[in-house]
Design a protein that fits this description.
By secondary structure, this protein is an alpha/beta fold. The chain has 2 domains: 5-147 and 189-349, Rossmann fold, CATH 3.40.50.2300; 374-524, IlvD/EDD C-terminal domain-like (Glucose Oxidase, domain 1). It is built from 21 helices and 14 strands. It has helices at 5-10, 15-25, 31-34, 56-69, 95-107, 123-134, 160-170, 176-185, 198-209, 224-243, 247-250, 253-265, 271-283, 289-298, 313-318, 321-329, 346-349, 409-415, 452-456, 516-524, 536-544, and strands spanning 39-44, 73-78, 113-118, 138-142, 150-151, 154-155, 373-378, 381-388, 398-406, 428-431, 463-466, 478-480, 500-504, 509-512. The strands form 3 sheets. It has an 8-stranded mixed β-sheet. Helix 5 packs parallel to helix 6 and helix 12 runs antiparallel to helix 13 (271-283). The longest helix has 20 residues, at 224-243. The chain starts with a helix and ends in a 35-residue tail after the last helix. The model is unreliable at 572-579 (pLDDT under 50).
């Protein structure tokens, strides 16, 4: 079978080949259908528990059509599916589990190439992490943004606008009846978040990495063009099965630089930083937070999409999509990097037009000069923390205030609106025990609510600091991903209410402004909490998860596998396990 992986299963004229071929015959496939065709796996994260991915059966059918048209044999397989809305405490807890599911499904089966179908926040990075580790030729098909809901004549972002309305409700400026009306208007269609939340950010990043077909990241979920893109992805998967390239040839340092540059230009979410660090770790690429800051400082923000702008991702698509953004970035992008097309990125970028300057600004007149996401360090975050500068209040980017500390999210819920809470507009809200171990799973709890009595006074933003994440649809002056986290003995565990905290984003500074000796003394007195899990996957997670500055992957999964993916262990021509 032309030296392909599938030939190791189906090519032998012996007992092993007999059993492997009859396994497909039992599915109704003829010998001609199997034949000498490249086998393309379709990794489908469809689930009725994840509305973002509910249309994937139709997309999978289109992928199969493309594979068949190109002369391949499509074989679909499921993996676990992760949805941010319903999974508790957070889908992030299970990202690494899904990545292992994807990796082992690819590695252990007769696949010459694989199509990864993902949409909701964590499914995309999980699939890329698994594919990078397996290193079998792979191409991604993302699900596309949902149709915008309309509330009282205005198109809404799936999350960004909701956070505004929640504050209006808490401040008494919106009634419960009006909020119920908003609920009925929301959730207009399948597809992922329609602003530049984590899902849309990751789709854009995938295209910049070169892991999907050019121009496909921003196609709306319900657009027929999304289905046509699925068919084209299936055709390209057959080409990948024959000639590559493999993920190791695409996921190079230059590709990650392109992805980070795109992240900053689109005003993307901070979750992408963790996911890119994890994918790079799987690919063996040495990527650090410092590289994100360096690229951020040189990259203008060009895309006017919520939460850092005005429009939605559908408007970005009609304005030219990611190819137009990459072209506008010019020499900030390495256009020689190879993509899943087998050709340089520049082939899709060089002629990409911008159709709407209100959505994609020029490099000469950007929406923001530089620094969409900044890295800060100091006595409160020795290993770094992030702030989405493009969605923060400029006047708060240099700030000194007294800490108001919450031990966990439950204490936030119980105390944030307590009239006796000692707090003012200059205070710094601090949440701990919300990181990878403390959450557990590092939930999206970082956008702490403004106390109601401050909302009543017109306060709309405050400095907030935590070891949590926040939704890519969120906004505000929120410092996230503090590393090391408090549950791992980081300095966040030493903060007490009333302590002065200093934030200076221009100086990359985040300090607990008390003597170092006092910080050490408090940490020495710290009593470790009991682990949230003592068995199963949760216990494995707590034992092996890395900190945010290393992507929250498992320590034993970093680095590409030394095993040759073309020769799976145990595949011997004269032996069939179980017979």
């Amino acid at each position: 079978m032309s030296g392909r992986r599938s030939g190791l299963w189906f090519g032998g004229q012996d007992l092993a080949g007999f059993v492997h071929r009859t396994s497909l015959h039992a599915e109704g496939l003829s010998g001609e259908a199997v034949g000498d065709r490249p086998v393309v796996g379709i990794c489908n994260s469809w689930s009725e528990l994840v509305h973002c991915n509910l249309h994937f059966r139709g997309l999978s059918a289109a992928v199969k059509r493309g594979v068949l048209l190109a002369g391949g044999l499509p074989l679909e397989f499921p993996t676990i599916s992760l949805g941010e809305n319903l999974m508790k405490p957070t889908a992030m807890l299970f990202r690494n589990l899904m990545s292992m599911d994807v990796e082992e499904s690819i590695r252990s089966n007769p696949l010459d190439a694989v199509v990864l179908i993902g949409g909701c926040d964590k499914t995309v990075p999980a699939q890329l992490m698994g594919a990078a580790s397996a290193n079998v030729p792979a191409i991604m098909l993302t699900g596309g943004p949902s149709r915008p809901p309309v509330f009282r004549g205005r198109e809404l972002g799936a999350g960004t606008d909701l956070w505004h309305y929640v504050d209006e409700l808490r401040a008494g400026r919106m009634t419960q009846a009006e909020f119920a009306e908003l609920e009925q208007a929301s959730g207009a269609s399948v597809g992922h978040c329609n602003e530049m939340g984590t899902a849309s950010t990751m789709a854009a990043v995938v295209e910049a990495l070169g892991m999907c077909l050019p121009g496909t990241a921003t196609i709306p979920a319900v657009d027929a063009a999304r289905v046509r893109a699925a068919e084209a992805t299936g055709r390209q998967a057959v080409a990948l099965a024959k000639d590559g390239p493999a993920p190791s040839q695409i996921l190079r340092p230059e590709a990650f630089d392109n992805a980070i540059t795109t992240l900053m230009a689109i005003g993307g979410g901070t979750n992408a930083v963790i996911h890119l660090l994890a994918i790079a770790g799987r690919a063996g690429v040495p990527l650090t937070l410092d590289r994100f800051h360096e690229i951020s400082q040189r990259t203008p923000m060009l895309v006017n999409v919520r939460p850092a702008g005005e429009h939605l991702v559908e408007q970005l698509h009609h304005a030219g999509g990611i190819p137009a953004v990459l072209r506008e970035l010019g020499d900030l992008v390495d256009t020689e990097t190879v993509t899943v097309t087998g050709r340089p990125l520049g082939d899709a970028v060089d002629e990409a037009p911008v159709h709407d300057r209100s959505v994609i600004a020029s490099r000469e007149e950007p929406l923001q000069a530089a620094g969409g996401i900044a890295v800060v360090r100091g006595s409160l975050a020795p290993h770094g923390a992030l702030i989405k500068r493009s969605a923060a209040s400029p006047e708060l980017l240099r700030h000194r205030g007294r800490a108001v500390v919450f031990e966990d999210v439950y204490e936030v819920a119980a105390r944030i609106d307590d009239p006796s809470l000692a707090i003012d507009a200059d205070s710094v809200l601090v949440l701990r025990n919300a990181g990878p171990r403390g959450g557990p799973g590092m939930p999206e709890w970082g956008q702490l609510p403004i106390p109601r009595r401050l909302l009543d006074r017109g306060v709309t933003d405050m400095v907030r600091v935590s070891d949590a994440r926040m939704s890519g649809t969120a906004f505000g002056t929120v410092v996230l991903h503090v590393a090391p986290e408090s549950a791992a003995g980081g300095p966040l565990a030493a903060v007490r209410s009333g302590d002065p905290i200093v934030l200076d984003v221009d100086e990359q500074r985040l300090d607990l402004d008390i003597p170092a000796a006092e910080i050490e003394r408090r940490l020495a007195e710290r009593v470790s909490a009991q682990p949230a899990y003592r068995r199963g996957y949760g216990a494995l997670y707590l034992e092996h998860v890395l900190q945010a500055d290393q992507g929250c992957d498992f320590d034993f999964l970093r680095g590409r596998s030394e095993d040759d993916a073309t020769e799976p262990l145990g595949l011997l021509s004269g032996w069939v396990g179980g017979w």
